[in-house]
Amino acid sequence: MTSSDWQSVRRLGKLLEPHRSSVCLALALMGFSSAGLLGLPVLVRGMLEGAAREQPPSAWQVGSVALILSALAVCAYVSAVLLNVVARQVCAQLRSDYAERWLRSSMSAHRRVPAGEYAERLNTSLADVDWFIRGSLANALALFVLMSGGIVMLFWISWRLALVIVLVGPLVVAALRGIERNGRAWLRKGRGEAEKMAGVLQSMVLGLDVIKSFNAEDEAMRRFGTRQSALLETQKKESLVTSLVDPLLIFAGAATFLLVVFFAGRLVAAGSLGLPQFITFLVYLMFVLPNLRNLGIQIARWRHVKTALDFLDDSAHMPPETDAGNCTLRVSSGQIEFRDLVYRHAGRETGLEGVNCTIQPGEHVGIVGESGSGKSTLLSLLLRFYDPCGGAVLVDGQDIRECTNSSVREAIAYVPQETLLFDGTIRDNLRLAQPSAADDEIREACIAAQVWSFIESLPAGLDTETGDRGLRLSSGQRQRLAIARALLKKAPVLLLDEATSALDPKTERLFASALHQEVSGRTMLIVAHRLAAVADLPRIIFIDDGVVAAEGTHRELLARCREYRALAGADA
After folding, report:
1. Do 12 and 305 contact (CB within 8 A), yes or no?
2. Taking the chain, what is the end-to-end CA distance rounded to the nearest angstrom?
3. Domain residue spans in the chain?
4. How far apart are CA 178 and CA 335, in angstroms?
5. Greatest pairwise CA separation for the chain in angstroms
6. What phi and psi, each to the nearest 5 degrees, are found at residue 543?
7. Which of 143-147, 232-236, 405-409 is the most confident on average?
8. How many CB atoms lie within 10 A of CB 327?
9. What is the pLDDT of residue 338?
C-alpha cells in the first residue's frame, strides 16, 4: 500500500462513515463466512483420517459440514444485501452533493468545464464507487481472510512446503505493483479521452440541426471517428499493461502448484508427510492459488475506484460562487446605474471600459451594438454572474456587490439569449419562476407573452410535455414561454437578452410594442442585435467596443451616429 492508496482508503472511509453499522455488520458476516470456510478442510481431514482407518464419516460430521455451509450462505447473502443498499445510498448522496456543488459554483467555473465531459466523469466515477462497494469491499476482506488464513494453515500442516509460497509471493507482488502503477496512469489518460468523446457526442446531439443544414454528416462522423480512434488507442495501451495481470497470476499459481507437488512427493516418499495431511495441504492451497486471479480483479477494481475518488475529490474543490454581500437589496423604484464600469473577460481583450449610464425607474431601454461589444456582459454583471473589475453597478443607489446574490436576483427577471426549457410540462417550466403560482397567474403571464392561444390549442394544455430542452416546441414558442416565465416572477426589473430573435422582424416589432404596455411601470432592459425589437423605444443605448458610443431614440441615433447607421443598414 502506497501513500496514495492510504489516502484513497481514508476518502472511502469518510464516504462509508454514515453507514458504519451496516458496513461493519456486512464485513463481520463476510469475515465469519470466510473463516468458516477455513475450518472445513479440518473437518474433511478428520473424515479422511477416519476413512484411512476404515471408519466411514459419521452423521455428526456430515451434518456439521452441511450446517456450516448453510450458515455461510446465509451470511454471504445478508452481507451482499447490506452492501448493495449502502452502495446505492453512498452514490445517491454523492450525486446530490455534486449536483448542488455544480449549482452553487461560479459561472466562470462553468465556462471552464464542458458540461458533457463533467457529466461523463461524474457518471463513470459514481459507477466505479458503486461497483467497488457492492462487489469488492466484502470480497477484499474475504480474500484477505482466505489467503492469509490459508497460508497460516499451510504452515501449520507443513512449514517446508509453505516456504515455497513465501519465496514466490514477493516476486508476484512486486510485478503486480508495477503493473498497477502503469495501468492507473493509462486509465487516467483513457478517462480524459472518454470525457472528450462525451463532449463530441453532446455537440452532435445539440447541434444536429446545424450539421444537417450543412450536409455535414460525413464531416461530423470524421471528427467523431478521430476522437474515437484516440480513445481506442489509449484503451489499447491500457489493456496491454493491465492484461498482464491474469497471465502473471496464472503462471505464478501454476509454478507454485508444481513446486509444491514436486517437494511434497519427496516428503511423502520419505515418510515426513502423511497422505491425509498432503490432501489437506492441497485443499488449503486451493484457497490461496485460485484466489490469486481474484486478487488481480480486486487490484483492477481498486485502480478504477482510486481514479474515481481522485475526480470526486477534485470536483469537491470546484470554486463556489462568491457572495461577499452582507445586506439585502431592497428595490423601491428600479433605478439602475452603471458607474465607471470596467470588466475584462479572462484571456480575451473584449469587455467593458468605463461604461456610464443610468436607467430611470420604470424606463424601457434598448441596448444595441455589434456582436461582442459587451451588451450581454452588462446583463451578466447586473445579475452578479460576474463582478466588475472596476466601477460599480447600482440598483436604487445600492452597490449590488454589497448585497447578497439571492436578493439581487430576486429583484430581476431574466430571459437569456439561449432559450432553455427543462424536460417537464409547460406548467413546470413556468413555475420555475414562482413555484406557488396559481393557474390564473400563469394564464395572465402567458397572455402577456402572447403564447396562451397556443397553449389552449394543445390537448393537454399546461400539462403538455416540452421534451428535453423544449425541443418538442418551435424556437418562437420556446422564446414566448421563456418571456412568460419571466413575467410570472413579477420582478421590478426585467432583462431580455435577444429574447425575440426567433420571431420575424414585423412580428417582433408588434410583440415588443405589446410587451412594453404589459410591463408598464417596471424597469426593462432589452439587449438586441436586430433593431426591430427596440426601434420604438424612447431610448436606445449604443455600445461600441465596450463603451457607450451614443444614446437617444432610433431616429436621433440614425441622424448623428455613423456606426449606428451602419448597424441599422446591416439590420435592414
Report:
1. yes
2. 71
3. 3-183+239-315, 336-571
4. 67
5. 119
6. -105, 130
7. 405-409
8. 11
9. 92
R_g over Cα of the chain: 35
Backbone angles phi, psi at 433, to 5 degrees: -75, -35
**What is the CB neighbour count within 10 angstroms for residue 280?**
23
Residue 507, Cβ neighbours under 10 Å: how many?
Answer: 14
Q: What is the 3-state secondary structure (H, E, C) of 513-554?
A: HHHHHHCCCCEEEEEECCHHHCCCCCCEEEEECCEEEEEECH
Structure confidence at residue 54 as a pLDDT band (50, 70, 90): low
| CATH number for the domain whose boundaries are 3-183+239-315 | 1.20.1560.10
Instruction: Give the list of residues 6+ apart from residue 29 with CB closer than 8 angstroms, or none.
Output: 75, 76, 78, 79, 82
Q: What is the pLDDT of residues 187-228, one digit of tens each?
A: 777 767 776 777 777 667 666 655 765 567 787 788 788 888
CA–CA distance, 496 with 512 (Å, rounded to integer): 11
Find the DSSP H helices in 271-404: 275-288, 290-315, 375-382
Phi/psi zone of residue 150: left (φ > 0), alpha (ψ -120 to 50 degrees), beta? alpha
| Strand 523-528 to 364-368 pairing | parallel
Three-class SS state of 50 = helix
Reported in sequence order, the residue ranges of 373-430 that DSSP labels E, i.e. its strands, are 390-395, 398-399, 412-415
Q: Which helix (H) or strand (E) holds 93?
A: helix 59-104
Give the C-alpha separation, 78 to 26, whole Å.
7
* Same fold yes or no, 3-183+239-315 and 336-571: no
| pLDDT confidence of residue 266 | 76
Q: By three-state DSSP, how is residue 366 classified? A: strand
Grid coordinates representing 279 are 490432501
The residues, ordered by sequence, that sit 6+ positions from 349 with a Cβ below 8 Å of its Cβ are none
> What's the rounded Cα separation, in Å, for the pair 489 and 429?
12
Q: What distance in Å separates the CA atoms of residue 208 and residue 469, rounded to the nearest whole number?
A: 14
Is the per-residue pLDDT at 123 higher than 70? yes
Give strand pairing partners of 494. Answer: 413, 524
In degrees, rounded to 5, the angle at the alpha carbon of residue 381 between the alpha carbons of residues 405 and 119 is: 70
- Superfamily per CATH, domain 336-571: P-loop containing nucleotide triphosphate hydrolases (3.40.50.300)
Which helix (H) or strand (E) element contains residue 261? helix 245-270
User: What is d(CA 285, CA 265) in angstroms, rounded to the nearest whole number?
Assistant: 15
